[in-house]
Structure formats: structure tokens, C-alpha cells
Amino acid sequence: MADKRYGMLFDSNRCIGCQSCSVACRAENKVPDDVYRLQVRIDGPKGEYPQLVMDFERHSCVMCEKAPCVPVCPTGASYMNKDGVNMVDSKKCVGCKYCINACPYQARFINPVTGAADKCTFCYENRVQKGEKPACVSICPTGALVFGDVNDSKSEIRLALQQYTVKPKEHLGTHPKLSIIPNKRGGGQ
Amino acid sequence: MDQLWGPMAQYTTVQWEWPVALYLFLAGLSAGAFIAALLVKWRDSSDGRYDGLVKAGALLAPVAIMLGQGLLIIDLSKPLSFWLLMLHYQLQSVMSIGVILLMIYSGLSTLFAAIVYKEWLADCELTEWFFKPLFPIIEWFENRGAWFEWVMCLVAIAIAVYTGFLLSSLGAKPLLNVPLLPFLFLISGMSAGVGASIALGATMFNESVQVRNLQYLLSLDTKLLPIELFVLFVMFTGLVNMGGQYAVVAKQALTTGIWANIFWIGVVGVGLVLPIIVSLTSLHGLNVSASNTASLTAGGTNSYETQQAMPMGILLLNCTLVMLGSALLRLYIVYAGQLFI
After folding, report:
1. What is the pTM of this model?
2. Which one of A40, A76, A172 has the shortest CB-CB distance to B90?
3. Which residues in chain B are closer than 8 Å to A115, comparing Cβ atoms?
4. Which of A51, A156, A164, A179 is the most buried (most CB within 10 A)?
5. Banded model confidence at residue B146, pLDDT cuts 50, 70, 90
6. pLDDT of residue B290
7. ipTM score for this prediction
8. Digit-coded pLDDT (tens) for A60-92
9. Which chain B positions have a beta carbon within 8 Å of A40's beta carbon?
10. How far apart are CA A9 and CA A26, in angstroms?
11. CA–CA separation, A13 vs B308, rounded Å?
């Protein structure tokens, strides 16, 4: 069987900004206090009553196919695994912060406990490898997140990606595997 | 901590702070001093007797690069794992290429210092015991001649240039992602290295510094500074012409906040324009007029005497300004490059 290509879809129309995903991520991945692998930022309410808009923005690693963080790493600690998930080998990482500066999505940070660069892993080692979905996807109460193998034509994500989607900072040519359905709600349309 | 989604400190943290900027400065200075020493050595090959400026450059090169590498290691978030950089190599990473270059360069600059100071090292009681057995090896390298010195010169240039590529390879940072940055760092590093060599040569090795060599380096510095100004001009106009985020960031970096002040007052004013003025009015001009009058009145016989009267205070001030400007340039590029994105 061919290698997988894991991807994620964030439907910002379904997101309600409840922060469950962020809390689940922290609990699942034991993310230290004050640093985040995932944030859902709320922009708004904006506009004029009653035409109000609230935008929800997922902020995490977007799993670039052409990831700027990988070639800059001087030790090979930053790499893409066989299933297309960008990972950090914290034992190989020396903490030079080159990858953090190379990331156009500001998805990386220094883990204050390990001293290594850290980021979203799609819960690859702790959940996805066991056949589970990432913690954020499992917990989302509104189904705003879809996860799966985009190489599998029968997967839920392939079906979901038939909708209109955009890629974050697409012009950079990084080919993210996180897609977004932009917000159409609010504003009185 | 107001927002529902938590603090955003990690997204605004400047990852590379002053130790990295200082390293970039020291690496440039080291390479510049090495090149300056070689340039003077090539001008007059007085057998075995080195000009004070060669001695100064030969000493500065290894010391500055060692200090710089120390700063780099301290700046790692896992400093004790620095050896992993020498175990795993990734040739597509500028930093990894830099590690290789730094190891070669550290060896070559130490070797060059050993060549220049070989007699002193062989006589000194502290170093005699380990240096004596190495003496034939040092002499073997010393007798390799010009091609080996060219290799050393090229590696020094590579060190100054790589520090620019290290930053310019960052596509996510528009102010750093400019093709001219390696060239800017080479010019700036050269001028800092030349300035440091003059300052150290004129103070510590004054008795063996020949005035014509001093003037040669001084005039080299006076030429490098306008080139650096021009490169900065081309770099920023280029950024503006590139449009999009590049133009936005370039305008922000030149007009907003403390970093714009550091650029205009520190880098351009104190570091480039002022030393050009000092050099042209107090050092360069003085010598020309002094030797002119001397040749008119006494047939040029006492021109040597008047030239030696080059004001030491102003000479050191000029060198200090040049080095300060070079250091502030790295500080500005490192901080503004990370803050304006």
C-alpha cells in the first residue's frame, strides 16, 4: 500500500471559537504552559449591527509539502515523515531556532521543557499511528475539522475537499496540507 | 492574556537576539581582519618580518571567530548539544554549510596566526613545549606560498558571505530575503576588520607598522564605506521595487520605531557618513597636504616625518566608528528583519 498523505480541512463556517481543540491539544500532547501548538483566534465581531461578522482563524502548523523549515535545519532534526507529516526529532534538535524563523506561518516555538523546537504533529505518534484522529479533530463539537489521507479517494477528507477551499498563504508556494473553507457567514449576505 | 485563545508571546518573540547579531559582526570582523592581513602581506613580502598590521590581523582573526562561535553556542536553546551540529550534516542548510566553513576557517586562521607569531611562540616559555614539535608543520604551511594564502583568503571571504546567506535564505522574512545581503555583509565585515586591524596595529604593534601600509588600509576603508552606503541604497530601493510585502516591510523598517532611528543615526550616520567625513578631513586630506607642502619646501625629504604625525586619537576614533557602524548594522538587520514581517 502506498504511503499516506495526511491532510486536514478547517471549515471556518462551522467553528464557534469554543477552544475545545486547543485544550484537547494541550492535554493530549502535554504542551507546557504559555506555549501553543494550536490557537483558534477570533476576529470580531466586526461590521455594523445587524450585519456583524466573526471570523475564526486556526493557527497551527499547516504541514507544507514544500516545508521551509525542513531544508534550513542543520542537523536533520526537522523532517517530513513517510506519511507527509512534518516532525521534529527533539533529540537531534540543538535549538538553533533557524526553523522557527524560516516558518512563514509562525507555527513553531521552543519547548521550554525539552529546549527543542516544537509544533503541531497532527498527533501523529500518539494517535494517528493507532488509527485515531488528531485530538483537535476528535473533540470538535461542530465538525469544523476533517482529517484523513488525501491519497485515499474514498476518504472523508477527499469528499470534503470537493468544496471551495483555500490554502493559507498559498502564494508562497509551500503547498500546505491544511485547507480552509473561508467564512461566508454573517455580514448580512 | 486578554484573549480567549491565550497569550501570543510566542508569536512575537524575537528568536535571534543580540548574541547572534554580535556573532555576525565578529565573524565579519574576523574575516575582514584576515583579508586585511593578507593584503598587507602581499604588498610587501619582507621575509619573516611582518608588518604590525599583519600581526594585528593575524591575531584578530582567530580570537574574534572563537568568541563569535562561543556566542553562537550560548544562543542555542540546547547549548550542550552543539556537538550534534558536527555529527549530522545537511548540505541544503546554510547553517550546516556554515559549521563546515567555520571549522576550516578556525583551523586556517589559527594556523596563520601561528605562522606570523612562530618565533614568539617558540620562544615563549608557556607555549614552547607544545609549539616546538609543531614548528616543522607550521613552516611547511608557511612555505606553500601564494596559492595557500589565496585559499585562506577565499575561505575568509566565504565566512563573511555565508553570514549573509544564513539570513537571506529565510523566505519568511522579507527584509532578510534579499540577494544583496551576503555582499553587504562582506563589505561591512571587511571595513570592520580593516578598522580593527588599524586600531590594534597602531596601538599594540606600533613600532613595526609601516606608514605606507597603514595608509593603504586606511584608504581601503575610505573606499569600502561609500560602497556600503551604495549597497544599502540599492538594497532598500530594490525591496521597494519588489512590491508587496517586501515594499511594506522595507518602508516600516526605515521609518518606524527605534530600529529606524538606529538605522539612520547609528548605521548610516555614526557608522558610515561620520567616518567618511573624519577620514577625508582629518586623516586622508592631512597626509596629502602635508606631503605636498613637504615636497614643495624641502624636496620631499621630510614627508615621512610629517606623515608619521597622523593624529592617533582621530585614527582610533575613525576605526571605532567604523566598527560600531558594522556592529549596529548586524544588530539592525537581525532585529528589524525579525520584527518587520
Report:
1. 0.92
2. A76
3. 77-78
4. A179
5. confident
6. 40
7. 0.92
8. 999 999 999 999 999 999 999 999 999 999 999
9. 5
10. 20
11. 79
Task: Tell me phi and psi for residue A18, to 5 degrees.
Answer: -75, -15
C-alpha B272: how far from chain center: 14
Task: Please say whether the dihedral angle defined by the alpha carbons of residues A128, A130, A136 and A138, taken in this order, is positive or negative.
Answer: positive
Euclidean distance between CA atoms A56 and B286, whole angstroms: 68
CA closest to A109 among chain B residues: B10
Residues in chain B closer than 8 A to A35 (CB atoms): 10
pLDDT confidence of residue B311 = 84
Chain B residues close to A17, C-beta within 8 Å: 4-5
Query: Cα B63–B197–B115 angle (5° rounding)?
Result: 60
3-class state of residue B225 by DSSP = helix
Q: State the pLDDT confidence band at A160, using cuts at 50, 70 and 90.
A: very high
Question: How many Å lie between the alpha carbon of A75 and the closest alpha carbon of chain B?
Answer: 5
Which helix H or strand E contains A72, and what residues bound it? helix A69-72
Summary mean pLDDT of chain B: 90
Nearest by CB to residue B95, choosing from A96, A104, A115, is A96
| Joined grid coordinates for residue B15 | 528568536
Q: How far is CA B272 from CA A70, B31, B96, B179, in A?
A: 38, 20, 32, 22
CB-based burial of residue B105 (10 Å sphere; 0-12 exposed, 13-18 middle, 19+ buried)? buried
B172:A68 CB<8 A: yes
Report the pLDDT value the prediction gives residue B300, as an integer from 0 to 100. 40
> Which residues does B contribute to its contact with A (CB < 8 Å)?
3-11, 13, 15-16, 75-79, 81-82, 84-85, 87-90, 92-96, 98-99, 169-173, 338
Determine the residue of chain A that is closest to B77 in CA distance.
A95
Class of domain B9-339: mainly alpha
Q: Looking at chain B, list the stretches that DSSP marks H as alpha helix, in order from N- to C-terminal side.
A: 9-12, 18-43, 52-75, 94-116, 118-123, 125-142, 146-168, 181-204, 211-242, 244-255, 257-261, 274-278, 285-298, 303-308, 312-339
- What pLDDT does residue B227 have? 97
Task: Please name each of the domains of chain A with its CATH number.
Answer: 6-63+120-181 (3.30.70.20)
> Is B5 within 8 Å of A102 when comparing Cβ atoms?
no
pLDDT-derived band at B292, boundaries 50, 70, 90: very low
Residue B286 has what pLDDT?
53
Query: Three-state DSSP class for B201?
Result: helix
In total, the C-beta contacts within 8 angstroms joining chain A to chain B are: 102
Confidence of residue B122 (pLDDT cuts 50, 70, 90): confident
Which residues of chain B make contact with A71, given a CB cutoff of 8 A? Answer: 90, 92-93
Q: Are strands A51-59 and A39-48 parallel, antiparallel or unpaired?
A: antiparallel
CB–CB of A71/B93 below 8 Å?
yes
pLDDT-derived band at B306, boundaries 50, 70, 90: very low
Q: What does the domain layout of chain B look like in residue ranges?
A: 9-339
